[in-house]
Write a structure and sequence with these properties.
Blueprint lengths: L2 E6 L2 E5 L13 E9 L2 H7 L16 E8 L11 E4 L2 E2 L27 E2 L16 E4 L7 E2 L6 H6 L3 H11 L7 E5 L3 H12 L4 E6 L2 H10 L3 E4 L6 H8 L5 E6 L9 H9 L8 H9 E9 L12 H7 L2 E4 L4 H13 L9 E6 L3 H9 L7 E5 L2
Parallel strand pairs: 10-11, 10-13, 11-12, 13-14, 14-15, 16-17
Antiparallel strand pairs: 1-2, 3-4, 3-8, 3-17, 4-5, 5-9, 6-7
Amino acid sequence: MIAMNFRGPFRVRADRDKPIPEIEHPNDAIVKVLRSCICGSDLHLYHGLVPDTRVGSTFGHEFVGEIVEVGSSVQNVKVGDKVIVPFNIACGKCAFCRQELFGNCHESNPEATAVGGIFGYSHTAGGFDGGQAEYVRVPYADVGPTVIPDWMDPDDAVLLTDVVPTGYQAAEMGGILPGDTVVVFGAGPVGIMAAKCAWLFGAGRVIVIDQLDYRLEFVQKFAQCEAYNFNYLGDVVEFIKHTTDSLGADVCIDAVGCEAAGDAMNTLLGRKLLLQGGTTTALHWAINSVKKGGIVSIVGVYGPVNALVPIGNVVNKGITIRANQASVKRLLPRLIEHVKNGVLSPKDMITHRIPLHEVAEGYHIFSAKLDNCIKPVLIPS
């Protein structure tokens, strides 16, 4: 089958001879992929910033598809079902899954005690192959896969595997109260969705900070928010303080993670010399821009390696920090209703539809931010 093949930092290709995956456990399913996405967090892998990303891996944690084979114990889905597959792999039975913390499953990732298993996201997330392929093996098939409603566009469905629930949970973790000012750092797909969802929780003002004008123009229209290019602001924290009567924002959301630009020292330490786990510039801005007693919500991806954060400011300002991988399975019923009712239209973020065999070009376009790319989707032939 055709599958994306990681060959090293900034090097991927489409292989045509990767074996079709097989059932390895009675609760597995084999899914024929109909759509898969390249995620902003895939670029962390592509850029060589995530430890234990092995040559030969197939990325892709955002995909939908049709079930073509199930293991002997699978009962909740059947051959022929078209399913949304959450990016988290969850057993559904451990202590954390029982709390609906499906991103923290204690059984699906033998390589770590923090994050649960994730499709196509290095051996730090379990070493599972992902969905940038024609077929993928889905463990715990009775838990994660959710049948796509007949009325739903597959382009909407594929964005419910990660982008929409992660953006929604970013707003949810912010504990937004009616009238709150919410600042979102990052105008990638997750930041765009976080800004959109902030209104659903009652925000009175939503501000997005990024450095790419085309993305700022997009989020301004998509999420009806204010949008600013940090390259023109001078000191970002001073700007936020100035525009919030010197108090700071009620809620700040870090939707960037470990590849944030905007601070030379952080970039040198985290991306050039690799002396810490990526850059923490957006997180610094979030902590320093939020008001005393405010909430910082983190959905930007950071790896397991240590990184510098201004913890003294967190303590002295009495800030609450909330962070986690999105619990996709918990959020899906609510988000499906939002799509059905026209509250959210995820597919409007898709700017590029690329054949799977041109996956290398897709990564190049997305990584280099060419052609006003917001969200690329890979289509198997």
